[in-house]
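Tokens as discussed.
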């Protein structure tokens, strides 16, 4: 048994070390952004008309006098351009730039552009006011590498609209399992998630989470000092990271208490004197009543996903249910980007809620759906 535990610990460590190091991961993110070949132009908003191809055709750059190429707006680019429509323009016409652009003649905006994913077009990915101070993702990556522990490992997701950096800290914490002791299988690592978009739409969100080493389940933490928000500036990001790192000990203790409680708590039937539900039935009811949702999947497919995740590690406690949902978040096929974020939020809410009561599934629905 001891040898098996040591072997698992070595495997867990090898998997952790296989992740990109902090500096390596941030270098790769910087390189990805630099390949976009970003450039900014200053334009008179009144001259930003849309041609028959759906491209934005600005006039000359008002500061340099150079020609601005025709721009293909991204989804966010359209949204940002529409946000500059004058007050009083109906919501249905705000994206019809030609209707209102002339009313903004003389108003200067900063057009943020980059190479399109394919072809030779230039993409308009953001429109911001002159007061906006750019803090692009490549610069953010450099600062993340500077302010976080050098021995951390990272997982990065960037889809040209938003970025998520999960910085997994080096030392594992051992939290109680169903026996009340911290087994190798219940080792977790703290991770700090940094989410941002450098298109003028949002600041920074920093959130603590724990990574269950056994199957890389991610649990978003709740409570005081688990979520930090910062404006999209270099100084605020540095301060946010420093404050978050200072809370590590408190965060670990808070999660240990929640995790210990989850192993000894159960979902119960809403009926009077209803007893504890077994794990499979609890999950079935949660899916039926819409308490577990995986964007892009219908309820029968969600049930298949969470049932398969639960069968990989069956059990009846709230912790078992939580583990099944978070496992499904990362294993289930989805049709929408960032869908796992939504599922992680649902799982976190279930873990931290005080009352775990579920209504029954009507017999006729259970028979019709054939959920077994």
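Sequence:
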């Amino acid at each position: 048994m001891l040898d098996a535990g040591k072997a698992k610990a070595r495997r867990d460590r090898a998997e952790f070390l296989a992740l990109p190091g902090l500096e390596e991961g941030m270098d790769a993110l910087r390189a990805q952004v630099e390949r976009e070949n970003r450039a900014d132009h200053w334009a008179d908003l009144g001259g930003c008309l849309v041609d028959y191809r759906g491209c934005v055709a600005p006039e000359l750059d008002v500061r340099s006098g150079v020609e601005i190429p025709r721009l293909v707006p991204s989804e966010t680019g359209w949204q940002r351009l529409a946000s500059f429509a004058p007050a009083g323009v109906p919501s249905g016409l705000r994206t019809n730039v030609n209707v209102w652009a002339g009313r903004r003649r003389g108003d200067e905006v900063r057009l943020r552009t980059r190479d399109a994913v394919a072809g030779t077009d230039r993409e308009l990915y953001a429109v911001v006011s002159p007061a906006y101070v750019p803090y692009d993702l490549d610069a953010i990556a450099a600062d993340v590498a500077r302010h976080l522990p050098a021995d951390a490992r990272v997982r990065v997701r960037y889809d040209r609209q938003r970025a998520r950096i999960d910085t997994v800290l080096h030392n594992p914490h051992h939290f109680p399992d169903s026996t009340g002791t911290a087994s190798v299988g219940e080792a977790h690592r703290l991770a700090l998630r940094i989410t941002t978009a450098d298109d003028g739409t949002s600041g920074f969100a920093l959130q603590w989470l724990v990574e269950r080493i056994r199957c890389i389940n991610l649990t978003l933490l709740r409570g005081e000092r688990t979520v930090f928000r910062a404006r999209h500036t270099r100084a605020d990001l540095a301060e946010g990271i420093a404050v978050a790192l200072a809370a590590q000990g408190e965060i670990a203790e808070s999660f240990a208490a929640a995790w210990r409680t989850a192993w000894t708590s159960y979902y119960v039937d809403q009926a009077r004197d209803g007893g504890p539900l077994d794990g499979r039935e609890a999950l079935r009811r949660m899916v039926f009543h819409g308490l577990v949702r995986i964007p892009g999947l219908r309820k029968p497919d969600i049930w298949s996903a969470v049932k398969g995740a639960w069968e990989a590690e069956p059990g009846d406690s709230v912790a078992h249910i939580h583990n099944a949902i978070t496992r499904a978040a990362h294993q289930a096929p989805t049709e929408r980007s960032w869908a796992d974020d939504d599922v992680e939020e649902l799982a976190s809410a279930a873990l931290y809620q005080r009352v775990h009561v579920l209504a029954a599934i009507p017999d006729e629905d259970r028979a019709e759906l054939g959920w077994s």
